[in-house]
Amino acid sequence: MSDEKGSAIVVIGGGISGLTTAIEAAEAGQRSVIVERNPYLGGRVAQLNRYFPKLCPPYCGLEVNFKRIKQNPKISVYTSAEIESVQGSEGNFKVKIKINPRYVNTKCTACGDCVKVCPIERSNSFNFGIDKTKAIYLPHELSYPMRFVIDASPGVCPGKSCSKCVSVCKYNAIDLDMKAETVEINASSVVYATGWSPYDAAKMDNLGFGKVKNVVTNMMMERMAAPNGPTKGKILRPSDNKQVKTVAFVQCAGSRDENHLAHCSSVCCMASLKQATYVRESDPDTKAFIYYIDLRAPGRYEDFLKKIQADASVVMIKGKVAKIEEDAETLDPIVTVEDIAGGKKITQKVDMVVLATGMEPSLKTANVSTNVKLDENGFVDADAQAAGIYASGVAKRPNDVTTSLQDATSAALKGIQSAVRR
């Protein structure tokens, strides 16, 4: 299938950077196409409980952006889609997109009757495996598009041998015969807004993830604290669902480490400071310990750091965590850390540990046939690209949401300039 609507800006990635790039370009009159591999838009921001600088829930901003997309005929969206190839030059790119079947068509009203009869469960990737969904599921409660999707991965949905969801759907919205299709887009420019993935915490053997039951990652913590998360906003430790009273935050879990991620992930310090407020707000008797190498709170965020430092129930210790073990009886994590200021090794038993795992660029491990050039850390090297190839947000470097939005506006302007030069 070939796109015949004329040249567009193709934005690869439907997270906050990709959405902003496409929307800003379209509202300036340039046709934009969003290509997102997930069955929903919103990216990592949709998984947060709150984000800087206002510490507001992400749905308030995402809902506005989804409305802007719906109202703008110059924006096309492909979810559950992946780039097969990008060929050509500025003003004359040919972008091939594979659209994978979601097995639920546009007739879906998200009524949920299908979920009630589905017998199969799957790990909920949106909540980082903390809970489960059925094989047919809505990615999250503000999912865009607001449509269910079937996980047809091996060993999940058995397809027509079950078909209970098909039988119960009164809108004929479920199509188990749906096939993948390929679309070719004529593009004046291509913007990579491919974002990031949390670094695999299991690769750091000494930090106990996957072995010590009550060690979680910072993104898992975001889902725990979120009202629409697996624990409905209650911070409960995984082993026994007990309300936590003491939490240790381990900074630079994989970042600034030549054996893992050589770069600083930029936002981890602020994320842990923010999450310390989640802990403190959950119960006035809670206590948080933050173990860090350096605390980085640039510019206006320094005031937030000072606010957290003023809380006597948040203890900040400069030192690198050597290991995390488990108390066999209580399942409490035991943190061993070098206290640099005190000049000694200390151990601390807590209810739960949160690892501030770093940002790994999604393109680093993606199987995408493109002509984009990456730097030594796997981020898009903005200065090395051919004309008409741009990047936005964390695809270029670790950034917070505010900086990513600013960068996305810049990418939209560059994309428009490529269209004008066409």
From TrEMBL:
InterPro entries: 4Fe4S_Fe-S-bd, 4Fe4S_Fe_S_CS, FAD/NAD-bd_sf, HdrA-like. Keywords: 4Fe-4S, FAD, Flavoprotein, Iron, Iron-sulfur, Metal-binding, Oxidoreductase. Residues 99-129, 146-179 form the 4Fe-4S ferredoxin-type domain. It holds the Pfam family FAD_oxidored. Its cofactor is FAD. SUPFAM superfamilies: 4Fe-4S ferredoxins, Nucleotide-binding domain. Belongs to the HdrA family. This is Heterodisulfide reductase subunit A.
